[in-house]
Automatic annotation (TrEMBL):
Residues 1-252 form the Phosphatidylinositol transfer protein N-terminal domain. Signal peptide: none annotated. InterPro entries: PI_transfer, PI_transfer_N, START-like_dom_sf. It comes from Plectus sambesii. It holds the Pfam family IP_trans. GO terms for molecular function: phosphatidylcholine binding; phosphatidylcholine transporter activity; phosphatidylinositol binding; phosphatidylinositol transfer activity. One of its GO terms (cellular component) is cytoplasm. This is Phosphatidylinositol transfer protein. Coiled coil: none annotated.
């Protein structure tokens, strides 16, 4: 088991991020879906009586998605992967400001593979030492990785576009933008997404190698997504949660149409 905590500071409030993150998930899902691949939404509904974060939260929104990843993995993996190996199930319990997401591969690896992403959203600059209330044992195993959306450190050339570059973007609705070096220390408003990622891969002889490989993917994914959340600010700023639920319902219908009839789109492996 390998545990890393990715800290993403953002120039917005915790309340704003709740809307922006959900809007951006719907938008990013559409950009990654087509040609039989991408995101399939199975369920999106309220939940209650599910204890989260040591019982502090117990209700919110539950989603179950399947990610069809045929062209999202290296060619050699596609060549040898058996049926079901490239379909990842995602279950998420969003009890904002806390959210728990679990990725599995039940059709092939069953209980041999699990990625758990626990996110706590706090109004600070990434300075909370133990946002997830970890035990002393887990704190000893945790590695902290600070991500800066103002730099392309973990991105590929295909990920960096002027329209989603926080050092170029300026919001017309809020005046925020063009993040300069050192922005995390001075920007207002400010918040941090503390994303605790636990990876378990239980195949003997491959565990450490695969767990380390999976963790190499998250800095890119988190950096790219959160740069987009900020640079799409004018698209979602001012929306309500009622608006978001309507957008999610429409997105679910759009994703099904794109996955069945659209072309293959989205991120590719390097």
């Amino acid at each position: 088991m390998l545990i890393k905590e990715y800290r993403v500071v953002l120039p917005m409030t915790v309340e704003e991020y709740q809307v922006g993150q959900l809007w951006s998930v719907a938008e990013a899902s559409k950009r990654e879906t087509g040609g039989g691949e991408g995101v399939e939404v199975r369920r999106n509904e309220p939940f209650t009586d599910v204890p989260l974060l040591n019982g502090r939260y117990s209700s919110g929104q539950y989603t179950h998605k399947i990610y069809h990843l045929q062209s999202k993995v290296p060619r050699i993996v596609r060549a040898i992967a058996p049926k079901g190996a490239l379909e990842i199930h995602e279950e998420a319990w969003n009890a904002y400001p806390y959210c728990k997401t679990v990725l599995t591969n039940p059709d092939y690896m069953k209980d041999g593979f699990m990625v758990k992403i626990e996110t706590m959203h706090l109004p600070d600059r990434g300075t909370t030492d133990n946002a997830h209330e970890l035990t002393a044992d887990l704190l000893g195993k945790r590695e902290i990785v600070n991500l800066d959306i103002g730099t392309p450190q973990y991105l590929t050339s295909a990920d960096t576009k002027p329209e989603t570059d926080p050092t170029v973007f300026m919001s017309t609705k809020t005046g925020r933008g063009k993040l300069a070096p050192g922005w995390k220390n001075t920007v207002e408003p400010v918040m941090c997404a503390y994303k605790l990622v636990t990876v378990e891969f239980k195949w003997f002889g491959l565990q450490k190698t695969i767990e380390k490989f999976i963790h190499t993917q998250y800095p890119r994914l988190f950096s790219k997504f959160h740069r987009e959340v900020f640079c799409w600010l004018d698209e979602w700023y001012g929306l309500t949660m009622v608006d978001i639920r309507e957008i999610e319902d429409q997105a679910q219908r759009d994703l099904e149409e794109r996955r069945k009839h659209g072309p293959v789109v989205g991120m590719r492996p390097e």
